[in-house]
Amino acid sequence: MRIQHIGLVVSDLDETLAALGLTRAHVTESVHDPVQDNTLHFVHLPENNLWLEFVEPMSERASIAKFAAKFGMGLHHLGFDSADLVASEQLHASREGAFTLGRYQIEVRSFGGRIRTLFVAVRGLILEYVKRYD
Amino acid sequence: MALTEQEQRLARFFVQREGAGVVEIITTVDFFQQGLLDSLDMVGLAVFIEKEFKRKLDLTDPVTMKAMARFDSLCTLAFG
Fold it and tell me: Measured between CA atoms, how close is A47 to chain B, in angstroms?
């Protein structure tokens, strides 16, 4: 199972980029998610063949607003490629302490275009499975 | 208002996080508005309920999410 991206919550994108030695020039794409009211900023790390997804809340009602207010910035989730989201969900369905949090569809060019995602929490750890539209 | 034995078991989740004083307000506040719960805490609460009451909450269900905001409806989810 390949880690495709790491999701970091940010309350101040520039501050987080600077902390990682990055600038706005490294951001390949920013996408607003109207359902969760977050803006997603994508940075590719070619050395690791890995994306960083910076999740920035756009309002107090944003899904990660309280997380951002509490921690400023921090690790939010690990993103994995998935060939089959149903199978990925079933992998956790019967496990104690595992909960499906949501399923979303969004266009992210950095991830290949239109994608479906599945969020699962395994105790305190949030996992996101990403599948490109067929 | 005195809590039943089951309510006390559920209240322990909040007492462990906020201290014993939270029991004074637990039956009257909205947990989200009061800052007692956020999206990650909800996962922790669902894990707690599954362990304590053997019930698995559906966190994708908006009705469940709404019910988690208040103690009385949370009790119904956990053991009602």
Answer: 31
Angle between the N-to-C axes of helices B39-53 and B5-18, in degrees from 0 to 180, rounded to the nearest 10 = 140
Q: Which residue has the tokens 């997603």?
A: A40
DSSP-derived 3-state class of residue B32:
coil
Structure tokens at B72: 């009385």
CB A111 within 8 A of CB A50: no
Q: Which domains does chain B have, with CATH numbers?
A: 5-79 (1.10.1200.10)
pLDDT string in tens for chain B (80-residue length): 689 999 999 999 999 999 999 999 999 999 988 888 887 888 999 999 999 999 999 999 999 999 999 999 999 999 99
Cα A83 to Cα A88: distance, rounded to the nearest angstrom:
8
What region, left, alpha or beta, does residue A72 occupy, with left being phi > 0 and alpha being psi -120 to 50 degrees?
A: left
A66, A67, A102 ranked by CB distance to B60: nearest: A102
**Which ipTM was obtained for this model?**
0.78
pTM: 0.86
- Is B26 near chain A, with CB under 8 Å? no
Q: How far is CA B76 from CA A46, A97, B23, B54, in A?
A: 50, 20, 18, 13
CA A133 – CA A106 distance, rounded (Å):
10
d(CA B78, CA B80): 6
Tokens for A26? Answer: 């490294």
